[in-house]
Amino acid sequence: MTLAIRSEVRFLLNGERVALSDIRPDEMLLDYLRLRRNLRGSKEGCAEGDCGACTVLVGRLSDGGLVYESVNACIRFLGSLDGCHLVTIEHLRGTEGGLHPVQQAMVDFHGSQCGFCTPGFVMSLYALWMRDADPSEAAIEKALQGNLCRCTGYDAIVKAAGAISSYGQSANDPLRVERAEVTERLRTLQDGARVEIGSGTARLILPASVDDVADILLAEPKATIVAGATDVGLWVTKFMRDISPVVFIGHLSELKGVTQADGVLTIGAGVTYSDAQAALAEAIPAFGPLIDRIGGAQVRNMGTIGGNIANGSPIGDTPPPLIALGATLTLRRGAERRTILLEDYFIAYGKQDRRPGEFVEAVHVPVPAKGAHFAVHKITKRRDEDITAALGAFHVVVGADGTVTSATIAYGGMAATPKRARAVEAALVGRPWSMETVEAALPAYQTDFTPLSDMRASAEYRMTVAKNLLRRFYLETTGTRKPIMVTRERAA
Amino acid sequence: MNSRPTPNFKAEKIVGGVATDQRHDSAHKHVTGTAIYIDDMPEPAGLLHGCLGLSAVAHGDILSMDLSAVSAAPGVVDVLTGADMPGSNDISPTGRHDEPVLATGKVQFHGQPVFAVIAETREAARRACRLAKINFAELPFVTDVGETDRFNGKLVTPPLTLKRGDAAAAIAAAPRRLSGQMRIGGQDHFYLEGQIALAIPGEDSDVTVYSSTQHPSEVQHMVAHVLGVPSHAVTVEIRRMGGGFGGKETQGNQFAAIAAVAAKKLGRAVKIRPDRDDDMVATGKRHDFLVDYEVGFDDDGNILGVDFHYAARCGFSSDLSGPVTDRALFHCDNAYFWPAVKAVSAPLYTNTVSNTAFRGFGGPQGMVGAERVIDEVAFATGKDPLDIRKINFYGTTDRNVTPYHQTVEDNIVQRIVSELEVSSNYHRRRREIAAFNANSDIIKRGIALTPVKFGISFTATHFNQAGALVHVYTDGSVHLNHGGTEMGQGLYVKIAQIVAEEFQIDIEHVKITATTTGKVPNTSATAASSGADLNGMAAQVAARQIKERLCDFAAEKYGLPKEQILFLPNRVRVGNQEIPFADLVKQAYMARVQLSATGFYKTPKVRWDRDKGEGHPFYYFAYGASCSEVSIDTLTGEYMVERTDILHETGRSLNRAIDLGQIEGGFIQGMGWLTTEELVWDDKGRLRTHAPSTYKIPLASDRPKIFNVTLADWPENREASVHRSKAVGEPPFMLAMSVLHALSDAVASVAEHRVCPRLDAPATPERVLMAVERMRKARSTDG
Prior knowledge:
Chain A is α+β, with helices and mostly antiparallel strands. Chain A has 18 helices and 21 strands. In chain A, the strands form 5 sheets. Chain A has a 5-stranded mixed beta sheet, covered by helices on one side. In chain A, strands 3-2-6-4-5 form a 5-stranded mixed beta sheet.
């Protein structure tokens, strides 16, 4: 069977069907909207996916259903929208053509001051309201982790968000009403073809399948693989790096699977943080809250765990806990697959064990044994939507006699790669699981780590807090009823 | 919305008059994405885009500059350097000639603009910028005031000394004394809309510049100065900014000037919108300070004398550092009477971007210094800091003279604080917190209640003036213009309310129009919280003139005494009959009555002699207080604001909804400054926190879990301000001091409140943990 190749990207923009054959591989959705379409309601505040002023919704077919997610248009590649329904602030309206309930609530609660961030807030709250018509304050705060406002202090916005349902029912929401029709229109866009646009230094490819990815990478081993673009997007907007040819993989449903078998959770390389969270939290409860601390909703809706691993960052948040759990990685080159310990993938700063033409296909996460202790703690300057200063992941098994039978501990932000604390582990294993043992193990941190000072934290703070996280982990395992962490929950 | 509204002629009150919770005039446009910011304006045909090339060293002589690759890059139309400025290559806002548009000869900070690329697209300009080859001979540099001689170092502008009594003698004679030092970090404005200017060339020397600026008149003057043309050739307009906070008081000048120069040179419209990272690197911020203090006090905690030295990182040029550091000294008292005081400023030269205005304008840093002194005395005497605060407050009839010899005549801090003390349950919660801490090893709680007294007026007396222009059209609709700018604070709607109130017409009949130098000239910056006070008065004056003319006309036409002409909602009672406002206007027009007026206002009473350090720089003071409770994690330094209660006053509020928004937003912005917003320069003099990924302003999930904000309903301005209201822009920012002090209180609990934690700002989790470690050491050496 010969593969069909299409030379245009097709998607729905609000109510309109769009087909584009003149897309540059590094063209950003926000520029397309503002410059080419003169849709200037979405704003550029940072061009790095942190402020949310450009928030739009992307609808995609998922297991037959139509799912809308908030994303940052500033770092979303236009080419990656093939087969999607893009909804911008311009499309939002009420049943009578007036303000949408989200918009009316924002007006009535004085939720805008300068107004520049407001379209982004409205879109984020709209995405929330679609899934949860009566959200808790915690859900509202979570939905707004990726939206910065410098004027209001947020309280008016959160109050508006809590009141949206009193303005209208989501059943009457125009987008809801259009759903069947949009679903049908999106289906007609899915022709199973590979999309290839441009040539030479301006080439983008949307493979038709994972096998197609493998073939393309064999032919184009230097291609830039883009899943969620939450990192590669900045290579373009901030560093203006040439990334052609680009191979987008975020649209491939084959890479979006999360399955569990024989105590191992397998996560496809295209699974976003948002999509992985429920399964991760169910299988490994301590993993769930970490996902909430990665970016904002828009970043979690785009960014993938596979990408978080593949880019090799020393401050990626998922590798340390995955290493602590003994995760393995399937790398594929052509038809060849090999599986390695995730820990071995990180060789040095900027250097990973990925060969030319090879790509990450899946990560396999062993679920901790019953009774094993596992925890992960991320330390940042600001609690939410911040990059790690230090992150510790702990996986300790204590035998029936109270001695530590195994300890796997890994940190981010403490070295040039995500790194095991092997000396600390050695100081724990075979000893009784007690605060005395923990205290006695602390000097071993000096053997394991020589952290750097940078704008996120000093070396001294990193070292102190890394040690203290082990103390916190120990206290957690004792089941103490005294508070050992600050939380967003209100005190009784 | 599009149909013409029919006024209600039976109404007892107009819609949208003063003291109503009128929504922001653009709220509907904000939520639909239809509010037009400069980058959203339809672009003129042939528009070009600019990008600034920035210095890659912190201090150095420019040996050579090879821009050939830049010029040859695709899409590039022109490359400008400082030598291409037709008039003067200078945008120093205070006339000190220390700030070039584009650096020539030498650069003085990492990120200083050196050249500008003008290209067909913004992307082409940005890409081309990177191709410059500039050779520098690097020179020694200093970025931190802690690394320089802060008492005798190089200054960018003359320092100020405030003195009352003999502080040294009072401290020497005091039963107890102590001294210390505090670091207070700077702050990036992080306005969501970055800097932007769009220049459209006209005929002759004319140019129109759309600039995201709080100070259109200054942009006009700077553009004229750089172009070498009279001010009449330059028109500057701004409908709205996406946030300002002081960051667009002077910092828009550079972008406007370069856009205008390029536009005139090339005969095409030019837009410059820097990328967020360039914006944060190349534009000024809040000044960070290093404060040295010495205080004399007695065993009860009565402060007898204080000596302050406020050293500020000003950057490479003066910009507004003179008045900013002055205002720091003006607030070294906060709400406290210092029986003998000396305060000295040191506006220090550093090889960093030139720091500038930011909400509070030095006042917050001054006050934070004062509150540290209070804390020190509390720890030294073993008393609750709130008790020390209360016994040192300004009096109402005595103990009421400031360090600058102005008598505080409107003091209400005692009542504000005592009401908040009760409503926040301060004392009960302090006891509960002590009980909690006694039983909790890892998590500790803390609480603090801090006051704010903030002086209102520009300390440069001549800025305290404003103008407005009001037209009434023959259909009774009103066109309103004034010198103030809208940056989200709700100034436009407040002034529309004032004008609606004067004419007694519903606010929808008042059209709010963009601020432009062509309509109201020689305006002051919308700054110093003065926007509504000054421009509201000017608009009121203009409206009253027209109203007066309408009165005179009606009295004459209907043969009635003027007392029988009464402006009722949407109508005018003339003797026994009521005439719709629009009908009377039409009649007046037919009778050839002028229906347009300008208004002018200057603040009374203010005067300031800087050389003597004496005067009456402030028309009045605004007051407030806040109480915050926090929890900290003594293993990591992480924290959470559990609850904040605020009681703030804005006199008789023009619009309580808008004022509450300013209070909440100001508090959170202040909290960011004192907690997570940290500016870090590296050993090359590079700012490393130049984007939201590295510079962390508060999120929704950082606001206090319980947030009770109350606008006091009893105060009124004892001065004759517009409708007896008070300014609200800046004062609430400083309410956030309660968070810093609550963190300090929680840290202090680790050593049973025996040692002052001396927690510096911003109190990042790292600083909190390091302070906890100091407490642990203090506890172990103690006992």
